Amino acid sequence: MTRIIMNGCNGHMGQVITDLCAADPDVEIAAGVDINTEEKNGYPVFAGLADCDVEADAVIDFSHVSCIDALLEACRDK
After folding, report:
1. Which secondary-structure segment (H or E) carries 20?
2. How much is the pTM?
């Protein structure tokens, strides 16, 4: 099983990807990252990827372009 962190999880595309992953037994969204930290999908949501302490195999990014530097730094560090 592939464990995913969904960056931008509470936006429109984040919700679409969350629904697609829920229907696929080979993937699991382990955590989300969003400025809106509402947990409405059954997984923990963090304000930033650097704050996320959940192990995962991949990050899917549908955040704002202004977040790319922080995203790349956090992925490099993990």
Report:
1. helix 12-22
2. 0.89
